Structure formats: structure tokens, C-alpha cells
Amino acid sequence: MTDRGPIPLPPHLLAPPDPAALPLPPPAAPAAGVRLLRGAVYAIPDGSRPLTVDLWLPEDAAGCVPVVVFVHGGAWRTGLRDDLGPRFRHWRPGPFARLAQAGFAVACPDYRLSGEAPHPAQADDLAAALAWLHTHAAGLGLDTARTVLWGESAGGHLAALTALTGHTRTDTATITGCVTWYAPTDLPGLAEDRPPGAYDPHDPASFEAMLLGGAPADRPEAARDASPVTHVSTHAPPFLILHGTDDALVPARQSVRLAEALRAAGHHPDLHLVTGGNHLWVGLADEEVTDCYARTVDFARRRTDAEEA
To answer: Which member of 241, 269, 291, 292 has the greatest number of CB atoms within 10 A?
Structure first.
């Protein structure tokens, strides 16, 4: 106390803690041979909730293991970081535990939803998650020089956007491959790809408008910047692109657009259009859903040279 009132607090005491310095959560054992660290804080954006990541790790890895970063869907508006969709919720062990049993570390990060912040906040959050993983690589036994991004629906869009812009960043994980499941990739092209009258680019209430902070037709530059196809270059990593031919929410043409852009830049993406598949793999037999997962695991293994457990 002074004659002018209380002594002001030092600014550093008011600042949030550095996520890199926070202790990791205690491990759980959700499946044989798997260690789960649930809810590690990786970023604290100004004015937002802390962002967290779940880490599924092989229990007794002989050395540093490659990383798969899974990005959840939910139209950028909702979703759970560890949810691969309704076709996988009954799997025991679950899909991420199976990946850990196969010798991968799996990171499932939160990101700010469109009701919390508009684009590019979501891509910024994923970049922060990759940098956090790289910072903790030695302590967690991660080889972040072998990192594959994987996302479904809106998460596939964000995974692709991150993979295609990652070469501009330093001191972070190195993206060696990207997998997208039924993802939007060209926001200005959605109106053309949907049936006539099914999509209004001037609608301020569309999921894309909520992501961009305004209707795509009214924010053309933001719509282009938020589209993975805009960022395709010679620096793009290998892609595995899966999409159902009967997708009623995101037209399969969106994945074709991404594959075409990658080919035009000199790449050889693996585009697999799944006959009869709707969004979330609705309409597919269980065996076909399992095949989509197996293709993803095989791609991740080839892009990281991971040994089978």
C-alpha cells in the first residue's frame, strides 16, 4: 500500500501461463498397450477458453514414434475432439487406441468453433497445436518430423488447409501426409457443386458464412483464403482423399477439385470416391467403413515408415 492506493500488480502475474510450461495430465490406460493423456492445454487464445489436446500413445515404444493429428468435424460449429463419427463410436478398442497399438501417437486437438471466432482462428489453433507437439516431442517420445494430418468433414477442410500452408512455419511438426474424409475444399465452388437451389452463397446463416463471419458471396477474399484449393503449391505433402459419391452435405466434387488442383501442381494425390457413401459414411456396409479406416492407417504408415506393432 502507498499513499496513492494499492501497489499495481506486475503485468506478468496477470498474463495466462505458458502452455508449454504447464504439467501434463496424468495418464490413463483405455486399452491394452495404450497410454492416454486427456486434456493437455496447448494454447490459451486471448478472450477464449483454453484449448486442449488428447494424446494416445503406445505404452512401450522402443523409440520416438510418428504422429497422427486427427481434426474433428462438426461444420466448424460443434463437435468433440475425439469423435470420428457415428460409424466408429461402437468400436472397442476405439479407432485412436487402435492407431496407438499400431505404433503411432495420436493427437486430437480442440480448436475454436465458428461461434467463438471466425476464420483463420481455427487454422491458427491447429498451427499452435503442431508447435506444442513439437515442443513436447522429446518428453513424449514423438517424432514430429513424421506427422500426418487427418480430418473428417470440416476437420478434413482444416487438416488440408493446415497441411497446405505448413511449409511457411518453423519450429513445428513436419507434415509428411494429409488425409481428408468428405471435406469441403473450395468454398466459392460450393454453389456450383450443389444441386440448383440447394445452396445460397448469400445466406448469412450457412455454416460457411458462420466460419467466415459473413456470407461467402459477400466475403469472397475470405472464402478464397479459407479454401484449401487456393493454397495448393509445389510444397504440398502427399494426400489421401476419400469421399462418398452420394454425399448429400458436401458434394464429392469438392474432393475432386482438391485432387485436380494437386495434380495441376505436379502431385499425385490418391483420390478414392466411395460408391454409395453419404456424409459420415452413412449408407456403407460395415466392411466398407472399415476399409476407409484401413486405407487411412496404411497411408499414415507409408508416409511415416511406421512399423507394424
So the answer is: 241
| DSSP symbol at 245 | T
Task: Report the number of secondary-structure helices (H) and strands (E) in the chain.
Answer: 10, 9
Residue 5 banded pLDDT, cuts 50, 70, 90 = confident
Is pLDDT at 12 greater than 90 in this prediction? Answer: no
How many Cβ atoms sit within 10 Å of the Cβ of residue 132?
22
Which of 265, 226, 262 lies closest to 241 in space, CA to CA?
A: 262
Average pLDDT in the 167-172 region? 92
Identify whether 93 is preceded by a cis peptide bond (ω within 30 of 0).
Answer: yes
With both helix axes pointing from N to C terminus, report the angle between 121-135 and 154-165 in degrees, rounded to the nearest 10.
60
Strands 51-58 and 34-43: antiparallel
* Averaged pLDDT, 290-300: 98
Q: 71: which strand partners? A: 151
The model's pTM? 0.95
Q: Residue 119: count other Cβ atoms within 10 Å of its Cβ.
A: 22
Give residue 211's Cα distance to chain centre. 15
